[in-house]
Amino acid sequence: MAEDLSHAITVKIVTPDGVVYDHHAHLLIVNAIDGELGIMKDHEPIIAPLRIAEVRVQRVDGLDHENHIAVNGGFMEFSNNVATIVADSAERQRTIDLSRAQLAKERAEKAIAAAEAKHDKDTARRAQVALQRAVNRIHVKQQ
């Protein structure tokens, strides 16, 4: 079955390790700092900083074909019907190791407790970010 690209955008997710995702889509949903954004063909050009959150892509090759990607912040640029997400790290749902993510969550929770006991705000903040990343990966994997 040929894909209908007449209403499609291209979605690319890039990290320092390379391209994590590159497909055509009808709809891209990201969590920007200011709230959730839905991007479709011919959307106005935009640059938006992203939260540590799930990115959802409704692909053109099936109405029920949606990809879920755990993105750890970064930013999204959209212009000329191409959405490019640049992030420090990103993982597709199918490649997330759930047990590894759960261990990362447990480590972060312990680090937060230890840092708070020592009143170490910097370490507590870093551990909070690690916890957000782990929870995001777990959430995406369980979709």
Characterise the protein shown here.
One of its GO terms (cellular component) is plasma membrane. This is ATP synthase epsilon chain. This protein is α+β, with helices and mostly antiparallel strands. It has two domains: 9-93, F0F1 ATP synthase delta/epsilon subunit, N-terminal (ATP Synthase, domain 1, Sandwich), CATH 2.60.15.10; 97-141. Helices cover 29% and strands 41% of the residues. It is built from two helices and nine strands, in the order βββββββββαα. It has helices at 98-117, 121-141, and strands at residues 9-15, 18-32, 35-39, 46-49, 52-59, 66-72, 75-79, 82-86, 90-92. Strands 1, 2, 3, 4, 5, 6, 7, 8 and 9 form a nine-stranded mixed sheet that branches. Strand 1 (9-15) and strand 2 (18-32) form a beta hairpin. Helix 1 (98-117) packs antiparallel against helix 2 (121-141). The longest helix is centred in the C-terminal third of the chain and has 21 residues, at 121-141. The mean pLDDT is 94.
Furnish the topology, listing elements before pairings.
Layout: E1 9-15, E2 18-32, E3 35-39, E4 46-49, E5 52-59, E6 66-72, E7 75-79, E8 82-86, E9 90-92, H1 98-117, H2 121-141
Parallel strand pairs: 1-8
Antiparallel strand pairs: 1-2, 2-3, 2-5, 4-7, 5-6, 6-9, 7-8
Helix pairs in contact: 1-2
Features of this protein?
143 residues; alpha+beta; ATP Synthase, domain 1; 2 helices; elongated
